[in-house]
């Protein structure tokens, strides 16, 4: 099998948006594989948006901050908008205390708000499959 090695981080496609998340353990090798796979998928699939959920990250260091910043820059060059969602208050405090800036990185309070910012909206449907809005 030739080509980039898939990362251990799942990347899902919802229309023209890629959705992924980061866990606590992101070493150099995993980060490079993740970055390569995500940028390849953006280009190959014509993604216009990327949501990176970091709600499971309990700590952040300069390496993860740099990875997020670089990913955002690469995605933007490929025509995709990136939103980082679900940052815990402790992570935000740590970033500020360490003087780390996520330059150019857009954030959202949670994944739902991030997807909304990328143009997705939740439509409530009853079990029959007809949206409630259509019943009005």
UniProtKB/TrEMBL annotation:
It holds the Pfam family STAS. Residues 7-118 form the STAS domain. It comes from the Bacteria. This is RsbT antagonist protein RsbS. Transmembrane segments: none annotated. InterPro entries: Bact_StressResp_Reg, STAS_dom, STAS_dom_sf. It comes from Streptomyces indicus.
């Amino acid at each position: 099998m030739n080509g980039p090695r898939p990362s251990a981080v799942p990347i899902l496609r919802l229309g023209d948006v890629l959705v992924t998340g980061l866990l606590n353990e992101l070493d150099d090798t995993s980060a490079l594989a993740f970055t390569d796979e995500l940028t390849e998928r953006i280009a190959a699939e014509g993604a216009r948006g990327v949501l990176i959920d970091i709600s499971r990250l309990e700590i952040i260091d300069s390496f993860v901050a740099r990875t997020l910043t670089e990913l955002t820059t690469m995605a933007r060059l490929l025509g995709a908008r990136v939103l980082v969602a679900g940052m815990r208050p402790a992570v935000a405090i740590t970033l500020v205390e360490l003087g780390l800036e996520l330059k150019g990185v857009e954030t959202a309070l949670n994944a739902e708000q991030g997807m909304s910012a990328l143009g997705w909206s939740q439509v409530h449907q009853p079990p029959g499959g007809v949206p409630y809005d259509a019943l009005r």
